[in-house]
Amino acid sequence: MAMDLMEATSNGTAVDKNTLYLLSGVAMVVFGAGLIVSNPVIRRYLSQLGGGNLAAAAIPDIERYFRLRAM
């Protein structure tokens, strides 16, 4: 384990490899979420839940967060 940490700090390719693993994991999560949401049964449940209302309620908070970060 310690050798892996030393390799990551001394070798640029190890950092690139870790970045590749991270981005491929994110891509797999997005792809998996797309597969789940493409299911008609899940879409029906989400429409009953009101996902659009949730997104509309979150947008003002996100805008406020970005304004605070810009200060």
Number of strands: 0
What is the terminal-to-terminal distance?
41 Å
Radius of gyration: 20 Å
Shape: flat
Query: What order do the SSEs take from the amino end to the carboxyl end, as H and E?
Result: HHHH
Helix content: over 70%
**Which band does the percent of strand residues land in?**
under 5%
Main beta-sheet annotation: none
- Helix-and-strand structural type: mainly alpha
Task: Report the average pLDDT across residues.
Answer: 78
Q: How many domains make up the 3D coordinates?
A: 2
Précis, in short:
By secondary structure, this protein is mainly alpha-helical.
Main attributes of the structure:
flat; 0% strand; single chain; mainly alpha; 2 domains; 71 residues; 92% helix
Question: Can you walk me through this structure?
Answer:
The protein is mainly α and 71 residues long. The protein has 2 domains: 1-38; 40-71, no CATH class. 92% of the residues lie in helices and 0% in strands.
